[in-house]
């Protein structure tokens, strides 16, 4: 008659084991990593989009301020400094810094039509690898 040795409890195989295998845990980690990397890429895109929107808003505000300043000084002094007055937006190119970004503002005045001035303000800036972006606003002033 053969002798039977007792098997250690850790070496016995049970018909219904509980828990996860190493491969299941590995697959779960890989799937979570892919999901988190996708979220990180999305977050980076959102941050870039917010920066572009902030710069666009700043450029539009700079252009609008220039047009309003020239409307304030009136038709005869638009694009120039009136006698005894002030105009912070004269014809030509100027650099304006807002929010740590340098914007190039250019005011051109078209007087080809009698008693009408067409003011065009172009504001441009650089967004690094994206390149140079710009905004243009136009208004028309008539002699009164």
What does this structure look like?
The protein has 144 residues and is of the alpha+beta class. The chain has one domain (21-142). 36% of the residues lie in helices and 27% in strands. It is built from one helix and four strands, in the order αββββ. Strands 1-2-3-4 form a four-stranded antiparallel beta sheet, with helices on one face. The chain is rod-shaped, with a radius of gyration of 34 Å. The chain starts with 21 loop residues before the first helix and ends with a strand.
Keywords:
144 residues; alpha+beta; rod-shaped
Assembly category: single chain
Tally of separate helices: 1
Would you report the number of β strands?
4
- Overall form: rod-shaped
Helicity range: 25-40%
Helix-strand pattern: HEEEE
Q: What separation lies between the terminal Cα atoms?
A: 125 Å
Rg over alpha carbons: 34 Å
Low-confidence stretches: none
Taking all residues together, what is the mean pLDDT? 89
How much strand content do the residues show? 25-35%
Classify the secondary structure makeup into a structural class: alpha+beta
Largest sheet: 4 strands, antiparallel
Strand numbers in spatial order across the main sheet: 1-2-3-4
Number of individual domains: 1
